[in-house]
Amino acid sequence: MYILAPSILAADFNILGQQIKETEEAGAKYLHIDVMDGVFVPSISFGMPLISSIRETSGQFFDVHLMIVDPIRYIKEFADCGADGITFHLEACEDVNAVIEAIRSYGMKVGISIKPGTPVEAIYPYLSKIDMVLIMSVEPGFGGQTFMPESLDRISQLRAYINENNLPVTIEVDGGIGKKNVREVMKAGADIFVAGSAVFKKRAISENVAHFMEAFREMEQ
Ligand code: DX5
Ligand code: ZN
Questions:
Q1: Are 106 and 79 contacting, i.e. CB atoms less than 8 angstroms apart?
Q2: pTM of the full predicted structure?
Q3: For residue 137, which of 163, 121, 113 has the smallest C-alpha distance?
Q4: Of the residues 7, 41, 115, 197, which should be mutated to test ligand 1's pocket, given the most ligand atoms within 8 Å of the CB?
Q5: How far is the CA of 182 from the centre of ligand 1 (A)?
Q6: Of 20, 29, 37, 76, which has the fewest Cβ atoms less than 10 A away?
Q7: DSSP state, 37?
Q8: What pLDDT is stored for residue 176 in this prediction?
Q9: What's the confidence (pLDDT) of residue 202?
Q10: What is the position in ligand 1's atom list of the atom closest to the CA of 201?
Q11: Residue 221 has what pLDDT?
């Protein structure tokens, strides 16, 4: 099953609750929430108060993408404000296993993300302990960037390894995904598609989400 995870970084914060509802009603099962600390990435986005507040308007799976250094410091806080899953960066911590255990201890799903320059093999030692790998298809930090085409080989490589080893791990891809390239990314082997600009900008949200749903249906047939 394919899943769309709209990234609220591209939403209009004046009417955030309303826009989130639109994505949910149109069929997006996840909501992707990008937390940036201005250290791991140059930009600062938002944090717990915003997540607590939107938790009241949405029943979607809250897919929290932590672009922060030393994520272990805040796992409890993100659990308390309503995260369903936490994805942290392999590059952002020393004791990766400790972060995995901390996230699990609050009953949340565990994801690890790798930046475009990190070899895919770096994630292999953790695959039996996590639920999801997030392959960044742009340098993390900003929405609206162009999909890096070399990400397709990285996704295929990981897909092959996961299948060969029968691992129950899903692959999420984040950055520059839209209706023009979503099919290619699906064919490479991704399961969950993050999309910010392609969902919240240009046309109506319902119409944008519908394009993804159509691509998913086509592939599932
Ligand atoms: C980038 C973020 C992405 C971003 C995606 O650091 O992790 O989730 O919001 O935005 P688009 O889909 O516009 O590339
Ligand atoms: Zn993200």
A1: yes
A2: 0.98
A3: 113
A4: 7
A5: 14
A6: 76
A7: B
A8: 98
A9: 81
A10: 13
A11: 85
Helix (H, G, I), strand (E, B) or coil at 171: strand
Q: Domain span at residue 93? A: 3-220
Tokens for 24, please give them.
Answer: 């949910």
How open is the CA angle 135-13-146, to the nearest 5 degrees? Answer: 35
Residues of the chain with pLDDT under 70: none
Residue 138 DSSP one-character state: S
The SS3 assignment for 187 reads helix
Total number of domains in the chain = 1
**Ligand 1 centroid to 142 CA: how many Å?**
6
CA nearest neighbour of 96 among 112, 77, 84, 85: 112
Q: How many Å lie between the centroid of ligand 1 and the Cα of residue 161?
A: 26
Tokens representing residue 169 in the block: 């791990």
How confident is the model at residue 77, as a pLDDT? 98
The pocket around ligand 1, CB under 6 angstroms, is made up of: 7, 9-10, 32, 34, 65, 138, 140-145, 174-177, 194-198
117 close to 101: Cβ distance less than 8 angstroms: no
The label of the residue with tokens 């972060």 reads 99
